[in-house]
Input
Amino acid sequence: MVRLKCIIYYDGSQFSGFQIQPRQRTVQGVLEQALKKMHKGESVRIQASGRTDTGVHSFGQTIHFDSPFQIPEQNWKTALNTLLPGDLYVHEVEIVPDNFHARYDVAEKEYRYYVWHQKERDVFKRNYYYHFPYHLNVEAMREACSYLEGRHDFTTFSSAKATIKGSKVRTLYEVSCEKQEERIEFIFRGNGFLYNMLRIIIGVLLDIGQGRREASEIPGLLAAKDRRLVGETIPPQGLYLWKVKYKD
Output
């Protein structure tokens, strides 16, 4: 038996998230179906670095699975991509030690979120950016980002539907906001993220950019640990799982 680690890209527009669900097209479901074909009808279960929601994209999702086949890494990549649809691609395959785990060995994740900041909608970007036509003070949003860096309890910025038990303390190593022409890019690097955490945070950052809140409110919101103090979760289509780093 050999353990394989894969880095996969996907356009989340036509997937009902990553995790397998009955009668839904999911990233896990499509991958496992391809692996089942390769393994002559035998089911192969994959493990991922984490789940992504409906509409969320990936440039760096990492999975692992075990197989009895002794196949060169490049041949694995070629065989899988032959069986996969156009919106899902295996970028890299690596044979790893048996004790490697795509989820439990994660040291750091990077997500990016893109806002299309222009009055007119661009129909060709609707699945890949969040269109936001209102005035924004980018400097105020940058100031707010600095308050989010470090180790905090992010309960206020976690979905009320979250099923996680235990601590909601996470460490964010980088939170940044940059505007280049019509595109605004948010970058988040951290040791872990709560359910809908980034989409809730970005909603608050956009409120700050509009002047509806002050950047200096962020420490108080973190301390309050109350989801009711912040607004709605913004749409998923601007969110990308960008990179996953491991302990080794």
In short: Strands lie at 2-10, 47-48, 57-67, 88-96, 106-116, 130-131, 150-153, 169-180, 183-190, 239-246.
